[in-house]
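User: quick one, fold this
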Amino acid sequence: MSNKQVEVNIAGQPYRFAISADNEAALLEAVALVDDKMNKLKGGVASKGVERVAVMAAISIASDLLAMRRKQDEDGAIPVDAVRARIRELNERADEALRQYAHVGTR
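Assistant:
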């Protein structure tokens, strides 16, 4: 299966991905979620603040994903309830961080 180039915009910035056609719909869905969140943040926050929040969120999510992968390798199963709880917690933390950055950006 060959990869195709898909260009998307997130918070007004272009990004290009090489993906298989089978994964395009999932990519576009993820892009829409990220773009929506970033555009909501962009309003009152300096761009470096938004970038910092985005990077911190990405590292936190990646860390959690890697921890879940290790757990899955050890146990052979994904703890769905724990994943849901962690996602809720991360969303709450991200929302709070964004509120703080938005407040700082309006000073």
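User: anything notable?
Assistant: The helical segments are 24-42, 47-75, 80-105.
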